[in-house]
Amino acid sequence: MAKDGKLTGVQKAAILFITLGPEASAGIIKKLPEREIQKITYEIANITSVKPEQKAEIFKEFIEMNKAKEYLSEGGLDYARDLLGKALGTQRAKEILDKVAEATEQYRPFAIARKADAHQLLNVIGNEHPQTIALILCYLQADRAGQIMSALPEELQGEVAYRIATMSNTSPMVIKEIEKVLNSKLSSVVRADVTVLGGVERIVDILNQVDRTTEKNITEGLEKEDPELAEKVKESMFVFEDIITLDDVAIQRVLREVESKELALALKGCSDEVGDAVYRNQSKRAAASLKEDIEFLGPVRLMDVEKAQQKIVGVIRRLDESGEIVLSRGGEDAIVL
Prior knowledge:
Blueprint: H1 9-20, H2 22-29, H3 34-46, H4 52-88, H5 90-103, H6 111-115, H7 118-125, H8 130-139, H9 142-151, H10 154-165, H11 172-186, H12 199-207, H13 212-225, H14 227-235, H15 248-255, H16 260-267, H17 272-279, H18 284-297, H19 302-321, E1 328-329, E2 332-333
Helix pairs in contact: 1-2, 1-3, 1-4, 4-5, 7-9, 8-10, 9-12, 10-12, 10-13, 12-14, 13-14, 16-18, 16-19
């Protein structure tokens, strides 16, 4: 296993072949390079048991990655991202496409940044020009970009966010030059690509991962820089208090996914309007129990409350992406097919 306890690619391949059985596996293995065959057969020999849910998850991932490769060959990256996003949700689609790129060695620019520790990367790019920081953050995983954005000086956060939101295409020569500098500083190899995607959707992805204080600072900075753009960003976001905009059926669906302890912490100190939206969608007994749990909590840290709220917002966004609930944005319903 990898150091973080997750299965390596070779271990996943070994479990996949065990799941497929000897006949189906034989036809695939013989097409692999000899070195890879040796690695996989070694792992197969050392696997004594595999949990059913582990088999199912790996087989599911195998199917998703093959579907992603099929879409990529049919219509390219944008086509694959669009179709996978509709089927799996935008975040899952991104994860699958990243894995496909890694498996086929078609790395995106700034692979060094995607693998680097957020703290180390911040030390390297923190003093760079805001446009350079924005460019690099566009290529990072949303959670990693959010960590770095949160750690930037307040006066820099809004400027970087503005540049991400207004970015569309960047010259390959500029990317190569920035890669060269980053390569020198982190002693790693970065391969080039031709374009970088920014825009409102990208900055919203990042803002969804930062703490509330950082989020507020960035949106206020955008309002000063470009009020119209700031409004577009806010319309695309969903914060915990926005739960009051959901209909009762949607709230009930969300509550089925949330643990009572997490919900009690998230509601600590919330407005009566937010609390009422939750209580009216519970049974009288459950609502009374939840109120007792909130009172029993006593004083709690704001960061713990915000963490619980962000977790629930994550559930809401996931259900929205899968089409199980519908969020209203900018006066129009965003339907996920």
